[in-house]
Design goal:
Blueprint lengths: L11 H15 L1 H8 L3 H9 L12 H10 L2 H8 L9 H13 L1 H23 L2 E2 L2 H14 L2 H17 L3 E2 L1 H14 L1 H22 L1 H9 L17 H10 L3 H13 L3 H5 L6 E2 L4 E2 L3 E2 L4 E2 L2 E2 L2 H32 L7 H6 L6 H15 L7 H12 L4 H7 L5 H11 L4 H11 L6
Antiparallel strand pairs: 1-2, 3-4, 4-7, 5-6
Helix pairs in contact: 1-2, 1-3, 1-4, 1-5, 6-7, 7-18, 8-9, 8-11, 9-11, 10-11, 11-12, 13-18, 14-16, 14-18, 14-19
InterPro entries: Integrase_catalytic (IPR002104)
GO molecular function, one term: DNA binding
GO biological process, one term: DNA integration
């Protein structure tokens, strides 16, 4: 709040109103503690004059503490006469339009944005949305410069990767994605990495050379002996990070990643109907030649929090912004935004914003790492609890379908109920 409000420019009446609002919100005892002033002094400040009738002005150091004790909505309601909750997308568009026309306003506007949303702006600036025109250009360039077989291979690997990345490229997501592919199939990871690098070099670079360099350097083409060593994490550290994540979408995203050990893309692409809260089951139902990620589970405490806290927040978010997303889709037909699919997503938020919120919390705790490392944490945590690596592989969808069928038919028989029992007894819990 101090970054956006100049205390010295508040009128005496505004100061009194803010102090009164803080008294109503906190109670006089708590307000005494926050401001370091006595009960009598606070009432004199609110009244505006002392016992001799002399006019009083509330010191700036007191007002800073008062403002920090109030929410942005409460402060703006007093200072500017409006509640930010009532601001609409049309208001935001009007501000942007003024910034385009007025250089002075634009300068102050961006200064305020940088102060309040520095991390978010950085994350968004490192994200590239792939369009239909981008793909058409890439295909044209390949057909002109590569053999037919090579061009087809590069295009197929790229299209599959972009679909799994939701047609959005960012350094952090690319790092995690290539690591996930290496875990599944090093050959596919190598071909995919080559296709992505070529696309970034030939297409993204034409649109934004600086961002293209960030994306290109964010991952390497996997080699035969390349091994990634995940960061060592503790359950206490993850609990601290979770408690420091303020935005509920990011909090739920991090919670499910840490407690299930699923791949980032799998959790990000979950639909609401894939999460059975009654039976505490997540049905991924994703099966390919290299992986069998078909089911995972949730703890009872996690389900309770999702029901009571996250899902109402998610539903409100979708209702409030559905019209805005529709307008965005209409204005950008080349991005193929599917409104109905967006409404069914468990996490209908931009991935870069989720990552930004989580990264801010990591920095508060003093432990930064890739979200991919949560998958490694889950595996090592379970094994330390005495769980068989085979069970861990089944829970994380790491066992290829063919191998799993052989195990089921000849060596190893386990039901979903038994898998859930292993999960409930041994899987990490961040809310307990």
């Amino acid at each position: 709040m101090p970054n956006l409000l100049d205390i010295s420019k508040l009128t005496k009446e505004q100061k009194k109103q803010l102090l009164e609002k803080a008294r109503e919100k906190l109670g006089i005892s708590k307000l005494q503690e926050v401001t370091g002033r006595s009960r009598k002094q606070i009432y004199l400040y609110i009244r505006g004059f002392d016992e001799r009738g002399k006019e009083l002005d509330i010191p700036n150091e007191v007002m800073e503490k008062v403002v920090n004790a109030l929410s942005i909505d409460e402060v703006y309601d007093v200072v500017h006469g409006f509640n930010p909750k009532e601001v609409t997308i049309n208001d935001a568009i009007a501000v942007i339009a003024k910034a385009v026309r007025d250089p002075g306003f634009r300068n102050v506007f961006f200064m305020l944005l940088q102060k309040q949303f520095g991390e978010y702006l950085k994350q968004t600036a490192q994200s590239y949305l792939v369009t239909k025109e981008d793909l058409e250009l890439f295909e044209k360039l390949l057909k002109e410069s590569k053999s037919k077989k090579t061009a087809e291979d590069r295009i197929n690997y790229l299209r599959r990767a972009l679909a799994e990345l939701n047609y959005e490229l960012s350094p952090d997501r690319l790092k995690d994605y290539i690591l996930e592919l290496v875990e599944e199939n090093r050959g596919r990871a190598e071909h995919t990495a080559k296709a992505l690098k070529l696309f970034i070099k030939e297409v993204v670079k034409l649109r934004d050379s600086h961002l293209a360099r960030e994306l290109y350097d964010s991952f390497k083409i996997p080699k035969a002996k390349t091994n990634y060593r995940p960061v060592s994490l503790s359950l206490d550290t993850l609990k601290q990070i979770l408690n420091n994540i303020e935005e509920l979408g990011a909090k739920a995203f991090f919670l499910i990643l840490a407690e299930t050990g699923l791949r980032v893309g799998e959790v990000l692409n979950l639909r609401v109907d894939q999460v059975d809260l009654e039976h505490r089951v997540i049905r991924i139902m994703k099966e390919s030649e290299t992986k069998r990620a078909y089911i995972s589970f949730l703890h009872e405490g996690t389900v309770k929090w999702l029901k009571e806290v996250y899902l109402p927040y998610r539903e409100d978010f979708v209702k409030r912004y559905e019209l805005s997303v529709r307008k965005l889709a209409e204005a950008n037909p080349d991005q193929n935004i599917d409104i109905e699919a967006w409404k069914t997503k468990l996490f209908p938020f931009r991935e870069d914003m989720l990552r930004a919120e989580i990264k801010i919390a990591m920095r508060k705790v003093g432990k930064e790492f890739r979200l991919y490392d949560l998958r490694s944490f889950f595996a090592s945590y379970m094994i330390k609890q005495g769980v068989s690596p085979m069970i861990v592989n089944l829970l994380q969808g790491r066992t290829p379908p063919q191998q799993f069928q052989i195990l089921q038919q000849h060596y190893f028989v386990i039901s979903d109920i038994e898998l859930q029992q292993y999960y409930e007894k041994h899987a990490p819990r961040l809310l307990d």
